[in-house]
Design goal:
The chain has 14 helices and 19 strands. The chain is of the alpha+beta class and about 450 residues long. The chain has four domains: about 50 residues, no CATH class; about 120 residues, Translation, Eukaryotic Peptide Chain Release Factor Subunit 1, Chain A; about 140 residues; about 90 residues, Ribosomal protein L30/S12 (60s Ribosomal Protein L30, Chain: A, 2-Layer Sandwich). Strands 1-4-3-2-5 form a five-stranded mixed β-sheet, with helices on one face. Strands 8-7-6-11-12 form a five-stranded mixed β-sheet, with helices on one face. Strands 13-19-14-18 form a four-stranded mixed β-sheet, with helices on both faces. α3 packs across α14 and α13 runs parallel beside α14.
């Protein structure tokens, strides 16, 4: 890797901005005053500028907002909370990044992020904000630019939000469209798929030697550690008392020869009975510790003959009947997730498609609309129960809910909101649902459409 200039915030002269308190600026002598403060008189103009810059940098360091990370699996409350941060100059940055490879080693994403922050600085100053105040808002971003460890620990996307006294970022498991926007509100509609696509499911990888449970959703999969999970079939079949519920585990000590195998009887069970005993203990463990209050689908991954045995001994009913067949004991988790996601994709899409079909069936009636002039007010007033939004769509203008006045512009003008984004947040805030769809799946010939709660 070659030598690169040090990344960071460009220097500037604080004296040029009238918004900064005069107490922070370099000392200025009265023109008629003749003092003996030779040191101040001998300061060169360059030294004065450096002193002013140091003072400003200290000002920014003392007052910049703390940087906090938010999980990409946001719930509706957290998303609405972000929407309420409306300080008048809100910076939103979305950036595709890399998890590994040369781009990470060369810190290319940090360079691209720095370009985005420069664009944000320009947009901030175009709103009439002086440079020092703009730099104060962006100070947390410059701190991230200089943090090499931060750029070596990314997923596939980054969302960054900053305004005065507030800064958050989110690592995203999917690449967003690169965007930089300064507006009265944060740009949040690109995050909605992580809210609406978070329908989760479970994957249980089974073999005679081990069982592993995972929680998955539309964006990834994580293992669920269970201290009481049996360590293979031999851990259950050889009589060690596990707990007071009469379950017995492997070992030479414990319950003794009078123990039963979950009703199998005192004699040594055959292979099928041993497997059933083992899988019943796996089922009992995950149902007690994880699935007791769940209704999410459970997908089995293992050799063919284990599937019907597990289904026969399990009490948890939402099991996908056609699981993943084969040996998954040594399959890496990303590959297991990829196969599980492909298997369940029709199920994950089914509910969303049901509402798209409902819109189409009701299209033309009083409970549907794809006209922005109708949809946007309906979103504000709680009339829209379900909103369909075209992915990455922009519709610039302003809606005044008190005056019931809507203005839509062909291009963004000063003070405009992205009405698609604002309408989506309003629907969520009013207890509705939002679906972000590619253009080809949109149910209406528009960038937004709504199923209405009432005419």
């Amino acid at each position: 890797m070659g030598n690169h200039p040090k990344k960071g915030r460009p220097s500037f002269d604080i004296k040029e901005d009238p918004e900064v308190d005069a107490g922070v600026s370099a000392h200025v002598l009265h023109p008629n005053r003749n003092t003996q403060k030779k040191r101040e008189q001998q300061l060169s103009k360059q030294e004065e500028k450096e002193a002013a810059t140091d003072a400003h940098n200290s000002f920014v360091a003392e007052e910049q907002a703390p940087v906090q990370e938010l999980p990409y699996r946001l719930d509706k409350t957290a998303l609405v909370s972000l929407a309420r941060q409306s300080a008048g100059r809100c910076v939103s940055v979305y950036l595709p990044v890399h998890k590994g490879g040369l781009a990470v080693n060369e810190l290319n994403d940090a360079v691209l992020f720095k370009d985005c922050i420069r664009e944000a600085a320009v947009q901030l100053q175009q709103t009439g904000l002086g440079e020092p105040r703009a730099q104060k808002i962006l100070a947390p971003a410059y701190a991230l630019i200089d943090n090499d460890d931060f750029w070596r620990d990314q997923l596939q996307g980054l969302a960054f939000f900053a305004t005065e006294g507030f800064c958050r970022y989110i690592r995203l498991p999917q690449s967003p469209k690169q965007q930089v926007l300064v507006n009265d509100h944060f740009l949040l509609s690109p995050l909605i798929p992580f809210l609406t696509g978070s329908q989760h499911f479970f994957v249980l990888s089974l073999s005679k030697h081990q069982a592993s449970l995972f929680r998955a959703d539309g964006f990834g999969m994580t293992p669920i550690p269970l201290a009481d999970m049996p360590h293979g079939m031999k851990d259950v079949v050889h009589f060690e008392e596990k707990d007071q519920a009469g379950v017995f585990r492997a070992g030479s000590s414990g319950a003794g020869g009078g123990a039963n195998y979950h009703g199998v009887g005192g004699n040594k069970p055959d292979e099928k009975e041993s497997i059933a005993l083992y899988l019943a203990e796996v089922a009992r463990t995950i149902e007690k510790e994880v699935l007791a209050q769940e209704h999410a689908p459970l997908l089995l991954a293992g050799v063919d003959y284990l599937h019907p045995i597990y289904i026969s001994v399990a009490h948890y009913k939402p099991i996908i009947q056609e699981g993943l067949k084969g040996s998954y004991e040594h399959v890496p988790m990303p590959e297991l997730y990829s196969q599980a996601r492909e298997k369940l994709q029709p199920l994950l899409d089914a509910e969303e498609q049901r509402f798209i079909d409902e819109y189409k069936n009701k299209s033309g009636g009083a409970l549907t609309s794809s006209i922005p002039d109708d949809v946007i007010p309906a979103a504000y007033y709680g009339q829209a129960g379900r909103l369909f939004v075209q992915q990455d769509a922009q519709l610039w203008g302003h809606f005044d809910p008190q005056a019931q006045s809507l203005v839509i512009h062909d291009e963004k003008q000063a003070g405009d909101d992205n009405l698609v984004d604002v309408a989506a947040i309003q629907v969520l805030n009013n207890g509705g649902y939002v679906h972000i769809l590619p253009k080809e799946r949109m149910p209406g010939e528009s960038v937004m459409a709504a199923l209405l709660r009432y005419p």
